[in-house]
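Figure 3 (text version): structure tokens given as input.
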């Protein structure tokens, strides 16, 4: 904290660090007593030359208690009041809302930051995928960062792959070893001599086709106090129980979302209310902030409904159930192991799915002959630091 004497009076400045997505840079700055979260987000976007601020947010961690608590910085409230219990606050600039088709975005800066965010999702285990999909994404990252290299000397890139692309502790050992071997095989056969903008375009196309794209799963409880998985993306808010039956609520079907203590209340347009119990008050605040931003964004803009064609049926209790893509299956976790719940939450993600049995879209993936991107930025190829948390 620094006190500055000015003509208008005394101003108190608080130092902080913002971890950016652009090249993994750290932005050291200060905020004043009357600074809001929007002021800090504007500064982070200005440094990274971001014009569209709709997709982004700032995360911070509260480590003062027994367990680490994560929060999204409220843009309308004072920063000082939100981090009063946090010593030396660190903010993480991250994607809060994932657009439905990121490869269609023409802004080169936003495309590059979304590419970096999806790299973090793959590294942290949030981007669930099969071996072929993970290998394809990994090979595209290697091509994007290192360009052409001799696969016979691939051992020189294994350390980078283990540390910056896929972590062994985030996925099963068999999955990790199979992906590593497949990565260099795909690179050698398909990805040599690709330009930077072509690599980014293919990466965004493939990642956005995954069912786990833009998904951050949470373990919650329904009104019957049964463990269910909840996640949200551009399609809506989804709940999945132990029987793997999925309940999808489109954003256009939701009137408002409120919360109280550990309970989240989803008010539907048909005047029914879905009650969801979260693990803790802080977790409820985190989920509520994420859900409200999704609701505001996808109901106030024209967004292509990716769920067209899903057959739904209304049951007697007015809950809408549907067979939503049955392929996304990150639920091969032990629901009977109650101690597993908080451990998964502390890790910020559920580990790679173990139960997906489907044909990989890699074999059917169309390589664009003409990428829908703006002109490539010379010198765009470079190193990214992805060691900071998601």
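Below: residues designed for each position.
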């Amino acid at each position: 904290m620094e006190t500055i004497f000015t003509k208008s009076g005394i101003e108190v400045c608080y130092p902080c660090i913002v971890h950016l997505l652009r090249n993994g840079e750290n932005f050291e700055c200060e905020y004043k007593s009357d600074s809001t979260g929007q002021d800090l987000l504007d500064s982070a976007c200005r440094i990274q030359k971001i014009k569209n601020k709709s997709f982004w947010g700032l995360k911070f961690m509260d480590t003062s208690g027994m367990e680490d608590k994560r929060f999204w910085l409220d843009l309308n409230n004072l920063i000082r009041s939100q981090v009063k219990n946090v010593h030396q606050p660190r903010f993480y600039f991250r994607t809060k809302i994932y657009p439905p088709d990121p490869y269609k975005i023409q802004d080169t800066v936003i495309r590059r930051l979304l590419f970096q965010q999806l790299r973090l999702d793959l590294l942290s285990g949030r981007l669930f995928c099969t071996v072929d999909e993970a290998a394809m994404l990994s090979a595209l990252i290697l091509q994007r960062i290192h360009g052409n290299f001799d696969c016979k000397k691939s051992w020189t890139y294994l350390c980078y792959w283990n540390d910056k692309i896929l972590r062994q502790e985030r996925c099963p050992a068999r999955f990790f070893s199979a992906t590593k071997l497949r990565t260099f095989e795909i690179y050698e056969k398909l990805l040599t001599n690709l330009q930077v903008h072509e690599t980014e375009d293919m990466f965004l196309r493939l990642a956005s086709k995954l069912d786990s794209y833009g998904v951050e799963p949470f373990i919650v409880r329904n009104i019957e106090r049964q463990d269910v998985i909840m996640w949200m993306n551009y399609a809506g808010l989804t709940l999945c129980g132990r029987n793997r039956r999925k309940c999808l609520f489109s954003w256009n079907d939701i009137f408002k979302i409120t919360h109280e203590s550990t309970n989240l209340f989803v008010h539907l347009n048909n005047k029914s209310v879905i009650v969801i119990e979260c693990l803790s008050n802080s977790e409820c605040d985190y989920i509520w902030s994420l859900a409200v931003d999704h609701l505001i964004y996808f109901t106030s803009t024209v967004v292509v409904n990716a769920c067209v064609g899903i057959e739904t049926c209304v049951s007697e209790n007015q809950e809408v159930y549907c067979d939503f893509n049955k392929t996304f299956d990150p639920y091969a976790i032990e629901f009977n192991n109650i101690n597993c719940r908080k451990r998964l939450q502390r890790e910020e993600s559920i580990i790679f799915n173990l139960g997906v049995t489907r044909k990989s879209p890699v074999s059917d993936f169309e390589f664009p002959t003409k990428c829908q991107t703006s002109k490539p930025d010379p010198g765009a190829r470079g190193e990214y630091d992805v060691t900071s948390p998601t």
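Confidence is low (pLDDT under 50) at residues 302-387.
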